[in-house]
Design a protein that fits this description.
This protein has 121 residues and is mostly beta strands. Helix content is 0%, strand content 50%. A hairpin with a 6-residue loop joins strand 5 and strand 6. It is globular and about 40 Å long.
Length: 121
């Protein structure tokens, strides 16, 4: 069965960095686009970033552009989110999601359980 397991969350100071990882199993990872999304307390789900199956095309929400970098290692079945210049408003539960297609479409069929990121001094 498909499994997506996020890790790497934690407490960071404003201006700091964290790297999230999402380990995938149960499907041909290299054949599908992947995304990261987040949900802040009391708010709806916000898409953060996406990457196509080959890792050649990346996409970002305006709120994180220039600060976050998505990447993937198809040999390790893992997608990453490098977060820098963190702000308090980045505090959220971060999820990775599997796209239905190789190209990024934001049509998801599986989600991980999430990893908490808290940005606070």
């Amino acid at each position: 069965q498909v499994q997506l397991v996020e890790s790497g969350g934690g407490l960071a100071q404003p201006g700091g960095s964290l790297r999230l990882s999402c380990a995938a199993s149960g499907f041909t990872f290299s054949g599908y686009a992947m995304s990261w999304a987040r949900q802040a307390p009391g708010k709806g789900l916000e898409w953060v970033s996406g990457i196509n199956s080959g890792g050649t095309d990346t996409y970002y929400a305006d709120s994180v552009k220039g600060r976050f970098t998505i990447s993937r290692d198809n040999a390790k079945n893992t997608v990453y989110l490098q977060m820098s210049s963190l702000k308090a408003e980045d505090t959220a539960l971060y999820y990775c999601a599997k796209d239905r297609w190789a190209g990024f479409t934001a049509e998801y069929d599986y989600w991980g359980q999430g990893t908490q990121v808290t940005v606070s001094s």
